[in-house]
Amino acid sequence: xxxxxxxxxxxxxxxxxxxxxxxxxxxxxxxxxxxxxxxxxxxxxxxxxxxxxxxxxxxxxxxxxxxxxxxxxxxxxxxxxxxxxxxxxxxxxxxxxxxxxxxxxxxxxxxxxxxxxxxxxxxxxxxxxxxxxxxxxxxxxxxxxxxxxxxxxxxxxxxxxxxxxxxxxxxxxxxxxxxxxxxxxxxxxxxxxxxxxxxxxxxxxxxxxxxxxxxxxxxxxxxxxxxxxxxxxxxxxxxxxxxxxxxxxxxxxxxxxxxxxxxxxxxxxxxxxxxxxxxxxxxxxxxxxxxxxxxxxxxxxxxxxxxxxxxxxxxxxxxxxxxxxxxxxxxxxxxxxxxxxxxxxxxxxxxxxxxxxxxxxxxxxxxxxxxxxxxxxxxxxxxxxxxxxxxxxxxxxxxxxxxxxxxxxxxxxxxxxxxxxxxxxxxxxxxxxxxxxxxxxxxxxxxxxxxxxxxxxxxxxxx
Length: 463
Ligand code: UD1
Known about the structure:
Blueprint: E1 4-5, H1 6-9, H2 20-23, E2 25-29, E3 36-39, H3 44-53, E4 60-64, H4 70-81, E5 85-89, E6 92-96, H5 107-110, H6 120-127, E7 129-133, H7 146-154, E8 158-162, E9 165-169, E10 182-184, H8 190-201, E11 206-210, H9 216-227, E12 231-233, E13 239-243, E14 251-254, H10 259-271, E15 276-279, H11 287-296, E16 299-304, E17 307-311, E18 320-321, H12 333-340, E19 346-350, H13 360-366, E20 370-374, E21 377-381, E22 390-392, H14 396-408, E23 412-416, H15 419-424, H16 428-434, E24 438-442, H17 445-458
Parallel strand pairs: 3-15, 4-14, 10-11, 18-19, 22-23
Antiparallel strand pairs: 1-5, 2-23, 2-24, 4-6, 5-6, 7-9, 8-9, 11-13, 12-13, 15-17, 16-17, 19-21, 20-21
The structure holds uridine-diphosphate-N-acetylglucosamine (UD1).
Residues 45, 48, 114-115, 141-148, 187, 189-192, 213, 217, 330-331, 353-354 line the site of uridine-diphosphate-N-acetylglucosamine.
């Protein structure tokens, strides 16, 4: 990829217009047989938190293995508005946060990306003030930020929410420094844990976060902060202790592989009855996902320390309940629902992390699945095969589930709402095509109609 300063070359996204991606349609031809190897990209959720973490550093940061995604681009734009210089070179991001300013993060971007709220912690601890609009992101429930705010207040921040903007500042005679505190999270929120780790790195004294999130992305952020000189213990357990330091220094840091992308490709192998390999991966980040795939009847073989092979077989139903790490990840719930929709027998998927994260059920049912929603449970009666249909992606992971369902279904599936997909999967279509899948994205309605007619008439697959 060419070397370009993000600050100069990207224009802000106009939220009043429908994103161009929204008008495009992805055609997926089913009964796919896949084979080969997939290169897994850097973890989106790590990269977003670590980009916010770069605000802590008064020197250059070099981030490696940063996926090229819409969410990353939006985060870059937010940092740019906050006075940060960012340059992408291939998979690397060079970030120069020497002179952050306390200008307000722009609502039109923050409203599209929940992770952008995470800038509140580093801005507040470095500058003593932060103004960040309440966030947006996937439409999967209310997703409040009360745990972030209560934690910052425990560290001495004054917080006011005015016209949808969270205004946090540190006042008092002791300078504009947050103070270490003991914080108990009512729920092990990933975002709140990350906000508070970042805030505590430069606070005065020691901060303890109890009932902290244990996700690998939290550990990655903590490791990034430690590489800059932060003093953090216990990341990856439910108690994290941070001893504040006066300042941090430059760093060269590589983001971990994306465990959700890995899980999505494992499901792609299972759902198409195809043997594929994936690397680089960290197998123990996927313990719950691999255990469920084995219960369902597929073999998942750890080939080298960082490579997985999936060898599928008949799919059997199994119940799944999402929970915080190391439990089964909520981000894999929709992909597994596509898989279980075509397995032998009945099962229940229970979503416990987010409310309103079962909206893909209606779309899978359009493809012939037999799924009923009762509260936060999806009761699945396996069918022998799904059938291609026009469907709408309702959130990021739902969009992946529809692609997976389309790969296995009889006939062709036409997926709209692709801006969700582009938020979180780097080159998904190209990677699947490399494995032998038939997919084609067309840009506007007219082109879609034309292509649909041609394809329906001739039954021709794209080259
Ligand atoms: C992160 C991930 C997302 C993943 C989720 C759970 C990023 C950018 N996104 O989201 O992909 O699905 O973790 O693994 O890393 N909650 C509150 N108050 C708060 C914060 C959270 O009630 O202040 C609730 C949320 O509404 C939700 C639950 O806690 O029901 C989990 O949210 P959280 O772990 O914070 O998820 P995110 O950090 O938003």
